[in-house]
Amino acid sequence: MKLLIAENYESLSKAAAHIVAQVVTAKPTAVLGLATGSTPIGMYRELARLHREEGVDFSRVTTFNLDEYVGLPPHHPQSYHTFMQEHFFRHVNIPLEQTNIPRGDAPDLQAECRRYEAAIAAAGGIDLQVLGIGGNGHIGFNEPGSDAETTTRIVELAQSTIKANARFFESIDDVPTKAVSMGIKTILAAKRIMLLASGEAKADAVRRMLEGEKTPDVPASLLQLHSDVTVIADKEAAALLSAETKNSGRLV
Ligand SMILES: N[C@@H]1[C@@H](O)[C@H](O)[C@@H](COP(=O)(O)O)O[C@@H]1O
């Protein structure tokens, strides 16, 4: 996996946005896999700026988000639908009908998972998948135990994930306990993957992803199975990496 070490969150966000902009400039009909969480917010902000000031064009881009909470309708303030609207879609020129996010309120969730996988395939697959990482090594909502054969499905959130995400809800009891999430197989099918990690709370997960064995116990370590992964970590998130791994990285 290729490693970029960023001086701070701002340079991480700029480096990530630059890669996305390169992909959509080279292929205006690119299919992007997108992530939520606080980590990519700076990247979305920078992409909005690149759209506004440098004319980066999203009009023919298609997007697929990784996941959505089960039970939250799209207009719920904490839904990932709302997150994507607020942080990205409404700031660029992407037509809403070209954006895809699983419906956590679908009456038949199994059918929704099948529909989502089929929609990704029908779009020709994902050109660039953006990922964050959970403190326990999860990607999307693929919690520890998720193996490389998993596809879009209903998942139970780990207690640590519920706790980490409680900050966005009024109380921890309001955090949904389940989500619809692309699987590891879905993620690994992307042509290119870019994972962002910021802050010391991610340092152990980043170390296990890059230096540990490939194991479903650390779902992000399964990214080692892919031939085109770029990890962009800020200094805090890279802090526990060996000197050898750090030296293999490029500073941005
Ligand atoms: N489903 C999302 C993940 O896609 C995200 O990577 C993770 C880390 O979030 P943050 O970037 O806020 O630390 O949180 C959530 O659980």
UniProtKB/TrEMBL annotation:
Q: Glucosamine/galactosamine-6-phosphate isomerase domain spans which residues?
A: 10-228
Q: Which keywords accompany this UniProt record? A: Carbohydrate metabolism, Hydrolase
Q: Does the keyword Cell inner membrane apply?
A: no
Q: According to its UniProt record, which residues of this chain constitute the active site?
A: 67, 136, 138, 143
Query: What are its E.C. numbers?
Result: 3.5.99.6
Q: Name one GO biological process term.
A: carbohydrate metabolic process
- Keyword match Zinc-finger: no
EC class: hydrolase
One Gene Ontology term of the molecular function aspect: glucosamine-6-phosphate deaminase activity
The reaction(s) catalysed by this protein are: alpha-D-glucosamine 6-phosphate + H2O = beta-D-fructose 6-phosphate + NH4(+)
**A cellular component term, taken from the record's GO annotations:** cytoplasm
Q: Which branch of life, at top level?
A: Bacteria
Q: Which pathway features in its UniProt record?
A: Amino-sugar metabolism; N-acetylneuraminate degradation; D-fructose 6-phosphate from N-acetylneuraminate: step 5/5
InterPro entries the record matches: Glc/Gal-6P_isomerase (IPR006148), Glucosamine6P_isomerase (IPR004547), Glucosamine6P_isomerase_CS (IPR018321), NagB/RpiA_transferase-like (IPR037171)
Q: What does this protein do?
A: Catalyzes the reversible isomerization-deamination of glucosamine 6-phosphate (GlcN6P) to form fructose 6-phosphate (Fru6P) and ammonium ion.
Q: Which PANTHER family match?
A: GLUCOSAMINE-6-PHOSPHATE ISOMERASE
- Family statement drawn from the similarity comment of this UniProt entry: Belongs to the glucosamine/galactosamine-6-phosphate isomerase family. NagB subfamily.
Q: What is this protein called?
A: Glucosamine-6-phosphate deaminase
What is the name of the gene encoding this protein?
nagB
